Amino acid sequence: MGKQIKPCRPKWAGMMTDRERFNNQMFYKPVDRSFNMEFGYWDENFQLWDIFVENGITTNEEADIFFNFDQFKVLSGNVWMSPPFSETVVQETANTKILINEDGLLAEVPKDAHDTIPRYIESSIVTPADWREVKARRFQRDDPARIVDFDSLKAAHGPGRNYPLGVDCGSMIGRIRNMLTFEGLAYAMYDYPDMVEDMVETCCVLVEDWLDQILPHIEFDFATGWEDICFKGGPIVSVDFFKNVVTPRYKRINEKLKSHGIELWYTDCDGDVRPLLPHFLEGGINCLFPYEVNSCSHPAELLAEYGNELRIMGGVDKLELGKGPDAIRAYLETLVPLVERGGYIPFCDHRCPPNVTPTDYLFYLDLKEKMFGLS
Predict the structure, then answer these.
(1) Domain contains 8
(2) Is 180 in a helix, a strand, or coil?
(3) Of 269, 179, 188, 284, which Cα lies nearest the Cα of 229?
(4) What is the pTM of this model?
(5) What is the pLDDT of residues 148-164, one digit of tens each?
(6) Could you list the residue range(s) of the whole structural domain that residue 268 is in?
């Protein structure tokens, strides 16, 4: 029997189901109130926040239940390495471990497992010969592990559900970045462009195979993706590469989504996405999630520029959450027109960091309900 989580607060009052509310809000239709969700928390929060420690909350999934957020679910397929590399520790120091991770990267990580980006030392894939070997062993389309048990999924997520359900469309270039490293991808795009395009194509066909299996059997409300190929200075790949290599694959996936009535597709890409945004939209990705403010802009700027063509989920500046009630109130007030127009759901613009106090976080949740809940 699973852990029983007792919510610490009532669910926001409402007259619509979570599914009805989400779909109406994302498509500029009337809603009873804003959809209520959050993206999650740093791992440290579960050790440092007394409200989590005292109530046994240890994961983001448990926190969603604890705070009684609206339900929001995503189904993912086996669209990457299968099998992944076995994680193997190759060396230890007093404070760190050097290991081979699931993507085949030699990486240095802290022993205390605090949240930080690992120091990537070396990739298992540098040359086309390396890629051919890994592709043959770990990216086979006919791997039995890629077969979907859609009967079980259909039974668990039938058409009568009251929550929105998304289908994950993987990553066309972000996970390749993970596999090659930032520097490795930067070099490979120029040294071995055919290899990188074959990697993108491989990612695309694996997603297409997953969608071909699952879309005929389950009614989805939206699609999701993950890229993380931008930082505060813009994209880590050239715009031409993205336009000519990545966007055409998005278009193929989008055709499948649209043929099954899926008109909303978000991708998780941190950093300054503005140089890539026209090409996201061209490919069919019409929503940004969780929309990192400080590396890009206030969400109002992009929503004003692109109108109803673009949606945003997130965009509550996590730095303002750490400054106390006055700053939190001032920032949320800037989001009122966005929630009123539709196509926007407010929540923290990434995992909430531990410098935000539990008291201020609860103030934020209370204020969000007063401003965007059912009045």
Answers:
(1) no
(2) helix
(3) 269
(4) 0.95
(5) 999 999 999 988 899 99
(6) 18-82+124-372
pLDDT band at 317 (very low <50, low <70, confident <90, very high): very high
Tens-digit pLDDT profile for residues 229-279:
998 889 999 999 999 999 999 999 999 999 999 999 999 998 999 999 999
Alpha carbons 7 and 75: distance in angstroms, whole number: 24
Q: CA 136 to CA 64: how far, in whole Å?
A: 40
Helix, strand, coil shares, percent, the chain, to 5? 40, 15, 45
Enclosing H/E stretch for 6: none
- What percent of the chain has a predicted confidence (pLDDT) above 70? 99
2 domain-assigned: no
User: Strands across the sheet with 96-100, in order?
Assistant: 88-92, 96-100, 106-110, 119-122
Q: What is the pLDDT of residues 14-51, one digit of tens each?
A: 999 999 999 999 999 999 999 999 999 999 999 999 99
Strands of the chain (E only): list them.
73-75, 88-92, 96-100, 106-110, 119-122, 165-168, 222-224, 230-231, 234-235, 266-268, 287-289, 311-313, 344-345
Task: Dig out the tokens for 103 from the structure.
Answer: 């993507």
Q: Could you give the number of structural domains in the chain?
A: 2
